[in-house]
C-alpha cells in the first residue's frame, strides 16, 4: 500500500525527514510514533499526496504521488488532528456534501451517509448541527466522513486526542471494525496504549530518522524488560537510591519523583531491595510498556 525508500522532506535548509524507508502492507494497521518535530506529520502529508517529496522514492497504492496525486487522493481517507467539519451543517449534510466532492451520485451518498451514521452511532443525531455535538461525536463524524469514498487506505493523525476514555474506546472499536473489513490504517498517536492496541507494526521516529521498527511486542522485548519496578522515596531521600538498587535490575533510571528498575521479575527485585534494607514509601511492579521503549529511544527531554 505504501513503499518509501530514502524518503526526504526539506523546508528550505531544514530537513524534516531524513532518508527513511517505510513499507506498509495491505490490511495492516501501521503506526508512526515520535516526539514533536520528529517528522511524522511531514511523512503523513507526503503519503497523503498533499506535500511533494524532496528526494527519494515513494509509491502509494502503487502510484507516484508526483504524477498520480488526484488518483491516489480519490482512494484515500484522511482524519486530521483537528476536526474540520462544517459546523453550521447537520451530521447528515456533512457526509452527503463531502461525498459529492468525490463525484458520487446523490442517491449513493444518501445511502452511504445512512450507513456511516449507523457505523459511527450518530443516526439519532442525523439532523443535529455539528456545533451541538460533543467532542467524541465530532470525532466519530470526522472518521465517518473520511470513509464516504470507501477508501483503501485511511490516514489518522492522532485520532483520539482530547477525548475521554469512553469516547477513545468507542473509536478504537470502530477502527478495529474497519481493519477487519480490509481497510489499511496508518496512525500517528501520542497515546502509547492506543498504538499497542491498534497497530500491527510501527516505527519510532526521532529527528527525521527511524530509530526503531517492529510490532509493539517486539519493540518492548528488544528495548525494555518484561517488568518495571517503580520505587518512591520520601522527599530528599531519593538521591543515590538508583545506585543502591541497581544490582537488582538490568537497568535503572532515577527520576525526580521515583526510581525505575527494569527487570525480568519485579517481585524478585523488590525482595532484593528490601533485603538490602532499602525501604521505599511505596512500590509498584508493572509490565513494561511501549511508553518505556519510546522514552528510552527518544529521551525524556521536552521537545517543542
Number of helices: 11
Task: Kindly report the oligomeric state of this protein.
Answer: single chain
CATH topology-level fold name of the largest domain: Rossmann fold
Query: Compute the gyration radius: what is it?
Result: 23 Å
| Sequence of secondary-structure elements | EEEHEHEHHHEHEHEEHEHEEHEH
What's the total count of β strands? 13
Proportion of residues in β-strands: 25-35%
List the domain count as a whole number.
2
**Could you name the CATH class of the largest domain?**
Alpha Beta
CATH architecture label name of the largest domain: 3-Layer(aba) Sandwich
Task: Tell me about the largest β-sheet.
Answer: 6 strands, mixed
- Terminal residue distance: 32 Å
Which structural class matches the secondary elements?
alpha/beta
Task: Identify the overall geometry.
Answer: globular
- The proportion of residues forming helix, as a percent range, comes to 25-40%
Task: Give the helices and strands, then pairings.
Blueprint: E1 2-11, E2 14-24, E3 29-33, H1 40-47, E4 55-60, H2 65-73, E5 76-79, H3 91-101, H4 106-119, H5 135-146, E6 153-157, H6 165-180, E7 184-188, H7 192-198, E8 201-206, E9 209-214, H8 216-223, E10 227-232, H9 241-245, E11 251-254, E12 259-263, H10 266-275, E13 282-287, H11 290-298
Parallel strand pairs: 3-7, 3-8, 5-6, 6-7
Antiparallel strand pairs: 1-2, 1-4, 8-9, 10-12, 10-13, 11-12
Helix pairs in contact: 3-4, 8-11
